Amino acid sequence: MARAGGGARGVAVGRMAAVVLGLAVALAAAAQVAAAAGHDYRQALSKSILYFEAQRSGRLPGGQRIAWRANSGLLDGKANGVDLVGGYYDAGDNVKFGLPMAFTVTMMSWSVLEYGDQMAAAGELGHAMDAVKWGTDYFIKAHPEPNVLYGEVGDGDSDHDCWQRPEDMTTSRQAYRLDPQHPGSELAAETAAAMAAASLVFRSSNPGYANQLLQHSKQLFDFADKYRGRYDSSITVARNYYASSSGYGDELLWAAAWLYEATGEGHYLDYVANNADALGGTGWSINEFGWDVKYPGVQVLAAMALLRGKSGVAHADVLRRYKQKADLFACACLGKSGSANTNVRRTPGGMMYHQSWNNVQFVTSASFLLAAYADHLAAAGQAAQCPSGAAASPAELVAFARSQVDYILGSNPRGTSYMVGYGAAFPRQAHHRGASIVSVKVDPSFVSCQAGYSSWYHRQGSNPNLLEGAVVGGPDEYDNFADERDNYQQTEATTYNNAPLIGVLARLAAGHGGGGRRFGHSLAGAEVDAAASVKSGNQTSSLPSSPSLAAEHESPPIGIEQKATASWTERGKTYRRYSVTVTNRSTNKTVHELHIGISKLYGKVWGVDKARYGYVFPSWMQSLPAGKSAAFVYIQAAPPADVWVTGYKLL
């Protein structure tokens, strides 16, 4: 995000002379690198952007390239007295879910901002910008008043009872809105982040549109911050599909960080710094980044501000704490966090693994964060500092991101590409209504809800329409994959799988000199050497880490102590009762929304409840005042479980 002047950081998106002059050289270098790696990253980039055209809702433009799609959802919003035509369907259904759509646009925009030059060299920048604008045009419609945001059209329950092409939809198209009486800070703030990031995409080519997006972004951020509340408590129909498990603190920080990027206005950076404790920005240490939990993204953005030297003395200490968390995320992805509990698990074939349902979303989002962070670290002459005392060099981060992308493209034990249409072997039965039913242009006969199931959903064989470029959910923890239409956990693609991937693919398509546009540096041949280091487990780094990081690690405000309080023998096994005490060591602040990680737990636990990101204390114990403790117990015929803090807010 190079500074564009006037206090805004912009991206030069015109067909600049420098890009034109360097096009032939860049493409030749990309071809050589792709051939050496065994993958055509430029082709994969083109396909991954093309996929978004299959997800379009509304009246399709004349340049629509996915020819089997047609207009749909042309009456969206009419019953509510507002025009909500447009936007994206999130996955294989026909619902427009606001939260994942906004995250998709934020990540597409960030991809363009970091690697727009590389997209231009591949001839894909215009298509990427079109994809961003298709989303932001819809967000402008969905935000008709400063404190009103329409956050969903359609509902998952009725939609999932029906298997229809979007062109034939007979399901509910009710629109659901947020307002001061029905707040939704996650959704409003994520939409603010998307529009702020997108304003940078259009800053040079369409400044009037960029200003319009920025105005909406500022209003939405103010709305999200002033009227705080969980969006899925207001739009309850979203809860079974896109529930907010991490709360809205991460989205508020995320939106403020993007508004600082877009405006350069110090009060947005003040917000990120002053709310680091209260909103969890420096309290959460999590190795997962996606549409729900944005903390790693916030931490990387804050670290980038620090690396650029734009933070100012007043916030340097806080931003260094953010950077510690960003480093920890990077180290956890590489298996260098110092603890098996916080390292990201990997399949036998080497893919990062978090969950059985659409695991690939976390692989693509992490790969983008690693690549972008690596380029900024390299420009500052730094590496990610890991708790184990080792460092993760920028070249190692990029090499690992490349390994994950290569896995998706087919370098895996099955030899299967998980991008539809790329490679010789790829999913043929993607879980997708439009792709799995004959195109309305081929056979305009109406397909009813149940006819869609009986004639098309359960049909054996490949989909009649190619969902080109779609990245599906991917394999399980053992690298197994079943290409079956009803296997939605593995064969359904989503927009937020592809959005961060386009940035990484552009980076890789540019070859060894493909660093981010903000600095234009090159990692030269170090990337190749680092690939060998990643495979061999070499812990060395060729670049210096931050000289002060070793002294920056502060005593954590939350202490954990566990001990065995009883033991007995039963049927030849010795059981122990373990008591775990969690203490707020802060002198004057209260811990809120405490999440605890537990592994190697083989028995029953009392006093905490399982949650999306670990364990939490019961709802009646909302907070832990300064100096106070809480406890839970578990019983097992094994050594003590591993217990650690995943995240918290400190007010």
From TrEMBL:
Main site of residence?
Answer: secreted
Listed InterPro entries: 6-hairpin_glycosidase_sf (IPR008928), 6hp_glycosidase-like_sf (IPR012341), CBM_49 (IPR019028), Glyco_hydro_9 (IPR001701), Glyco_hydro_9_Asp/Glu_AS (IPR033126), Glyco_hydro_9_His_AS (IPR018221)
Q: What UniProt keywords apply to this chain's record, in alphabetical order?
A: Carbohydrate metabolism, Cellulose degradation, Glycoprotein, Glycosidase, Hydrolase, Polysaccharide degradation, Secreted, Signal
How would you classify this enzyme at the top EC level?
A: hydrolase
Which residues belong to the signal peptide in this entry? 1-30
May I have one GO cellular component term? extracellular region
Q: Point out the coiled-coil segments of this chain.
A: none
Q: Where in the cell is it found?
A: Secreted
* Renumbered residue ranges of the record's region Disordered: 534-566
The UniProt entry annotates the active site at H431, D483, E492
Offer an example of a GO molecular function term for this protein.
Answer: cellulase activity
Q: What is its EC number?
A: 3.2.1.4
Which reaction equations make up its catalytic activity?
Endohydrolysis of (1->4)-beta-D-glucosidic linkages in cellulose, lichenin and cereal beta-D-glucans
Provide one Gene Ontology biological process annotation. cellulose catabolic process
Compositional bias annotation for Low complexity:
541-550
Family the entry assigns: Belongs to the glycosyl hydrolase 9 (cellulase E) family.
Q: What is this protein called?
A: Endoglucanase
Instruction: Please name the source species.
Output: Urochloa decumbens
